[in-house]
Design goal:
heterodimer, A: 518 residues, alpha+beta, Cytochrome Bc1 Complex, Chain A, domain 1, B: 446 residues, six-stranded mixed sheet, 17 helices
């Protein structure tokens, strides 16, 4: 449901923010997910029986299902080098391609100040290596036909490349130098900081998603938490210097905090010596402990507006708290969230978009983190003049999740979608590599995806209802809106005290509006 | 089948690593099956049992290029109406049926075509075909649903155009470069005014005129049996009535290119930008392959000419991209340079011009050619990994060029491009006299 002409242009606009924006789409070939390469998926063995379902819930006669083979998650050969560096190998000979990922547990808030970890990750590529200038490095990588991606999210920095099988030794040569022998050239750092400052100040004006998400994390997490800062502002970029970058690299870029993931046309027997040769002599101590303080649950509903003058549309988010990613009840959380806003059959899509015509995009998402409770946001993008109606629509649907909990049909549909869509996402070896990265980043156990899928399929409506009651606290939510405060603040004050911030002045408070009675 | 494709692909990639491959060294083969029903529906199928999934893609030969003046954006608005119910599928049920069977779906509208697709577990092939056939044969429309989708599309317009930095400038660039050539001069998302003016009765007429089996290609890729699939296709689509009078697409003559320019004030943009475009031949023409590689040379990757010069060395820009639109008809070669704070448009323009002039004068180096061809191989193969990507590419080849099997030779055409070809096409097409320019001026927020 996309018009491609405009979409093409928009993709250029948002390219930089790929790792920092919240995907709020509904039905897209690319999965909506938070953070670089975070994916949700699973699978068990054996053939799944054809469903009898010759009729939909509405009584429509549809063709009967055939038999679909199961698609268990491919085996992951996990090992460690003597220095503690992890090596995960997934073998698939379907294409002569190897997807390479390096996971370094150096999240965006791990440095001495916000931005250090992100710029350290970027400097691995932009700053050159002992033997190569930045320009030489980029040309060498790109002459292989590859790109070196570097993405830093809350829990890790991930380097990624896709190469043909016979280029793997050279790719590992390059990655070894990039990780172990970065040059951190001072002039390149100066240039990178200038570019980054421009990019983040550009995003502060142009991206409602960025400004709203910055405020969601700011409002939910205590300042000392490594999860408190989403994205960057220019003064944070400015503060980062070469010493801080080198120090972060020394402390966090160590074998024990690093896992190399190889997925594709390579097996462990061939990979191990290649990796030993290039990473075996890498040394380093234990990575430091990081303060990952959990979010503060809101005690009452309040409103934050990231002011976007002349914005014709508001990006409306209602933020609450979801249980930890590794909690036993996670499958029920996913099922409940799928029922609420997980796609084109969800309640939000059906009501807020298809009935009330208030939005093009709606969603409900948990912003996944490796430790502790996590932010949960529901979203609608709506015409400025209908912002209060959209907030009402979101809150009503949230409330209905407890007053009219997920039905048996809704639960069945949600769990089938969550479990079976993984086969579609696993069509490419790159997606499989990213799922292993997710496992490593979030600390999910061996065999996780298959076990998770089994759990999803076994989730009962009562469990989804219980998860909904825990999460959807409409009387204690933070409503964050990126939009024109001059127009929308008065109406939104009926939901709680309003704080208006100016994203272009580093989110400084512009004014507050006390709550008014409805 | 799968084995055959893979072995040959592996050989191709092996060559790619070692050296700049001669053109004859590339031997891609997709074992595509083609068929045509009596009602004119063209069917292309590509079996691959690697994943237990299947992609179904129905591509109609209608897009924004078919729209009349005053009706811009209607092909896309109509696409939304195709999800509002059909004879046997109540409103909302299409979404529910696909997702409750573990699948995903969507539709997209471009200037050149409109597609509708489902990605499903392989055991649900019949469901996907049945759903697509039902809405090809019938559409359940009402004023209420129409108004609802008009409002939804207007929200999409606000999101993608009015509230998006640099996008209005990008649309203005298309207007300039295709000035006088209506099919591509106007945006597929339309205008708010035309969306407001759209009428319910146009929906029925549009469906009758264009949504017929003889005006579509059905593409299926993934884990299925060809004979069983064909039996299902005949069962569900066989009774779809052909449209003997599909409106003929009659584009106007392409005006002679001329230099044009505009300034777009953009209150959502923080920094200026410089957008340029030149009309170039359609995607299936030999010069287009060389121009695609020229776009890679200029703007693909951080070691590309423009990125290196403008972003890395001089710090005049935060990004510099080059691309072709891949239009079915006359195409556009476009540059998009987002300036850094304090940088001047004139300085960026001068540097862009000098980079283009260098290529026109000297052409790429041997090292450049090695890089370009390796990157093109990687892009081509990585871009065809998923079932949906293959289904869509095959459908477009069938629709645009008359034979999906031509995909086999597509990579070869890129690999046959020489240094001199790139030098020649850059000198021929990317000239100031043929260029359209849009300067983005950040607007005041208050």
């Amino acid at each position: 449901m996309t018009s491609l002409h405009a979409a093409k242009s928009a993709s250029k606009v948002t390219a930089f923010l790929a790792a920092w924006t919240l995907a709020a789409g509904c039905a897209s070939p690319s999965a909506a997910s938070f953070g670089p390469n975070k994916v949700d998926i699973p699978v068990p063995p054996g053939a799944r029986p054809a469903s009898s379902g010759a009729a939909a819930a509405s009584g429509v006669s549809v063709p009967p299902s055939g038999v679909t083979k199961e698609s268990p998650f491919p085996a992951v050969a996990r090992s460690k080098l003597a220095n503690g560096m992890g090596l995960d190998v997934v073998t698939s000979h379907t294409l002569p391609i190897v997807q390479v990922r390096v996971v370094v547990r150096a999240g965006s808030g791990y440095g001495s100040s916000p931005g250090v970890a992100t710029l350290t990750g970027d400097m691995l590529k932009d700053g050159g290596t002992r033997a190569m200038t930045s320009a030489d490095l980029l040309r060498r990588i790109e002459t292989l036909g590859a790109n070196l991606g570097v993405a830093t999210d809350f829990d890790a920095t991930v380097l990624s490349m896709a190469v043909t099988k016979d280029q793997l030794p050279e790719a590992l040569d390059i990655l070894s130098q990039v990780l172990r022998e970065p040059r951190f050239d001072g002039d390149e750092l100066r240039k990178l900081k200038a570019r980054t400052a421009d990019e983040v100040s550009g995003a502060a004006r142009s991206s409602g998603a960025f400004t709203a998400m910055r405020m969601v994390f700011h409002e939910l997490f205590p300042e000392r938490s490594a999860y408190a800062t989403y994205g960057l502002v220019p003064s944070e970029v400015e503060k980062v210097d070469g010493a801080a970058v080198r120090e972060l690299h020394r402390r966090f870029y160590v074998p024990k905090a690093t896992t190399l993931v190889l997925a594709g046309d390579v097996d462990e027997g061939a990979a191990r010596p290649l990796v030993e040769r290039r990473f075996g002599s890498w040394t380093g101590g234990d990575p430091p402990k990081v303060e990952l303080a959990p979010p503060r649950a809101p005690t009452k509903t309040r409103v934050v507006i990231a002011h976007r003058p002349k914005s014709v549309q508001s990006d409306v988010y209602v933020a609450m708290i979801a249980p930890p990613r590794k909690a036993p009840g996670w499958p029920a959380v996913r099922v409940a969230n799928q029922v609420l806003g997980g796609g084109v059959a969800s309640r939000l899509f059906t009501d807020v978009r298809e009935q009330r015509s208030l939005a093009y995009r709606t969603s409900a998402q948990v912003l996944e983190l490796s430790h502790g409770d996590q932010p949960l946001v529901v979203y609608a993008g709506t015409e400025t003049g209908k912002t209060a109606q959209a907030v009402a629509g979101l809150l009503e649907n949230l409330a209905r999740m407890t007053s009219s909990p997920p039905t048996a049909d809704e639960t069945t549909s949600a769990r089938r979608y969550i479990s079976d869509v993984f086969a579609i996402r696993m069509e490419t070896i790159g997606s499989i590599a990213d799922m292993v990265v997710t496992q490593e980043t979030l600390g999910l156990p061996e065999g996780y995806w298959d076990a998770y899928r089994k759990q999803v399929r076994a989730t009962e409506p009562a469990e989804a209802e219980s998860a909904a009651k825990t999460m959807y606290t409409t009387d204690r939510a933070i409503i964050v809106v990126a939009g024109d405060a001059d127009v929308i603040a008065p109406e939104l004050a009926t939901y709680g005290d309003v704080t208006v911030v100016d994203p272009e002045k580093e989110f400084k408070t512009m004014r507050t509006v006390p709550r008014v009675a409805k | 089948m799968r084995l055959r494709f893979l072995l040959i692909a592996a050989a191709a990639l092996g060559v790619a690593v070692a050296t700049v491959a001669p053109a004859h060294a590339q031997q891609l083969h997709f074992d595509v099956k083609r068929a045509k029903l009596d009602n004119g529906l063209r069917v292309v199928m590509l079996v691959d049992h690697t994943s237990p999934t299947v992609a179904i893609d129905v591509v109609y030969d209608v897009g924004a290029r078919n729209e009349e003046r005053g009706r811009t954006g209607f092909a896309h608005l109509f696409e939304h109406m195709m999800f509002q119910g059909s004879a046997n599928v109540p409103r909302g049920e299409h979404f529910k049926l696909v997702t409750s069977h573990g699948g995903q779906l969507n539709g997209t509208t471009s200037a050149d075509r409109t597609n509708y697709f489902e990605m499903l577990p392989s055991g649900e092939l019949a469901l996907g075909l049945w759903l697509e056939a039902d809405r090809m044969k019938s559409l359940d429309i009402s004023q209420k649903n129409f108004e609802n989708q008009r409002a939804v599309v207007k929200e999409e317009y606000r999101m993608r155009v009015e509230n998006a930095a640099y996008v209005p400038a990008s649309l203005r660039l298309e207007e300039l470069v295709f000035q006088g050539y209506w099919p591509y001069e106007h945006p597929s998302i339309g205008t708010m005014r035309d969306l407001d003016g759209a009428q319910l009765d146009w929906v029925r007429s549009f469906h009758d005129a264009y949504y017929a089996p003889n005006n579509a290609v059905l593409s299926i890729a993934g884990d299925f049996d060809e004979n069983e699939a064909m039996a299902l296709v005949k069962r569900y689509f066989g009774d779809a009535r052909p449209q003997p009078n599909v409106p003929r697409y009659a584009p106007p003559p392409l005006p002679e290119p001329a230099p044009r320019s505009a300034v777009v004030e953009d209150s959502h943009a923080r920094f200026p930008a410089l957008l340029s475009a030149w009309v170039i031949p359609p995607s299936d023409q030999p010069d287009h392959y060389a121009l695609d590689l020229a776009a890679m040379l200029l703007g693909d990757g951080e070691s590309s000419r423009l990125h290196r010069a403008l972003v890395r060395e001089r710090g005049l820009a935060i990004s510099a991209d080059a691309s072709t639109n891949d239009n079915r008809g006359p195409d556009a070669f476009e540059l998009d340079v987002r300036l850094a704070s304090g940088a001047k448009i004139a300085d960026a323009q001068k540097l862009v011009d000098s980079q283009i002039a260098d290529i026109a004068r000297l052409g790429p180096s041997d090292d450049d050619m090695k890089k370009l061809k390796n990157r093109m191989r990687a892009r081509f193969l990585l871009g065809l990994q998923s079932n949906f990507a293959r289904a869509q590419k095959l459908a477009e080849m069938e629709l645009y060029r008359g034979d999906a099997r031509l995909l086999d030779t597509e990579l070869d055409k890129y690999l046959a491009v020489t240094k001199d070809d790139i030098k020649r096409v850059v000198a021929k097409y990317l000239t100031p006299a043929r260029r359209s320019l849009v300067e983005v001026k950040p607007g005041e927020k208050k």
